[in-house]
Amino acid sequence: MGYLDPAPTLAEALVRTAPIRDRLSSVIPPVEWPAFAEDVAAIQDLKRRRNAVILAHNYQTPEIYHGVADVVGDSLALARKATETTADVIVLAGVHFMAETAKLLNPEKTVLIPDSAAGCSLASSITAEDVRLLRAAHPGVPVVTYVNTSAAVKAESDICCTSANARRVVESLGVPKVIMLPDEYLAKNVAAETRVEILAWRGHCEVHERFGAAEVRALRAAHPGLVVLAHPECMPEVVAEADYAGSTAGMSSYVARERPARVVLLTECSMSDNVAVENPGVEFIRPCNLCPHMKRISLGKIRSALETMSGEVTIPSDIAARARLAVQRMLDIA
Question: By CB distance 3.0 to 4.6 Å, which of 169, 237, 263, 278 could disulfide with 161?
């Protein structure tokens, strides 16, 4: 089905989206808003027509995160909210494993990803066969799999976790040793907080692995009083230099709660923009790293997906049933 109703004109779109433009003026100059207004207005119309909801990760750009998203958050929040929607169509503004997770939890709904090539360095670092080989090498040791993985990898796992609940998931199993996949640094950071022995894989996030401890010290020297927040996908030595380490939701909550005068978020670039909109008066220092996969998602691609109903996510039933169980086990204890 195509776009049946007349698309809003630029003049109409500018009027309709003016409140969004004003809210985002600190991160998107108003002179640039005409480049976004028509797509934002058209997407709003399409959501109503399709009975669609847009789930957007914290790393999406502000015009998506604040302009068209219905639900925003980290991987755990999106997984939870995916189970609560009454929409017929879910558009996942994020990367492919997130869209797969939404489909696992909503098998009867249509799940679209605006760009199927939006991948993840962590998800591509491990395969289902790798997990089977690890199980053979460590018989009886349960496998805890980060949600940043394919459905096929989740299907070979005992339980999933996110950066927000990893320690809780690991300790919930009541065992002395677990295999934790695929993020080596997240596994090491969790290992430092628990007595459970953790066997790690060698996967890394291409965004977070680029931050270094020396960079953190240089930032503190250049910006007195700086509060440093780090994602646990960063190297342990970076986490050790930070004032707080946590998921993207945890970092956002920290800023809202503590209201630091000056802060840096050691994570993907758009996160700082999105949190800054919600916390005027807080100064954000922005030495960030872009995620090339998240940035494949754009307003234009979201609009096209809703117009043409393209980019539908499907998962083979045998893989879906086992992967769904691993995700649901996480949600049951998180």
Answer: 169
Q: For residue 284, what is the enclosing H or E element?
A: strand 283-285
| Nearest alpha-carbon partner for 122 in 93, 145, 99, 144 | 145
What's the pLDDT score for residue 2? Answer: 45
- Distance, CA of 88 to chain centre: 22
67 near 47, Cβ under 8 Å? no
Domain(s) of CATH 3.40.50.10800: residues in the chain: 10-119+294-308, 123-204, 208-285
pLDDT(194) > 80: yes
C-alpha distances in angstroms, 47 versus 77, 117, 151, 287, 306? 21, 23, 27, 35, 8
C-alpha dihedral, 13 to 16 to 22 to 28, nearest 10°: -30
Q: Give the separation between CA 286 and CA 275, rounded to whole angstroms.
A: 12
- What are the backbone angles phi and psi of residue 118, rounded to the nearest 5°? -75, 95
Contact 128, 145 (CB under 8 A): no
CA–CA separation, 217 vs 75, rounded Å? 29
CATH architecture of the domain 10-119+294-308 equals 3-Layer(aba) Sandwich (3.40)
pTM score above 0.90: yes
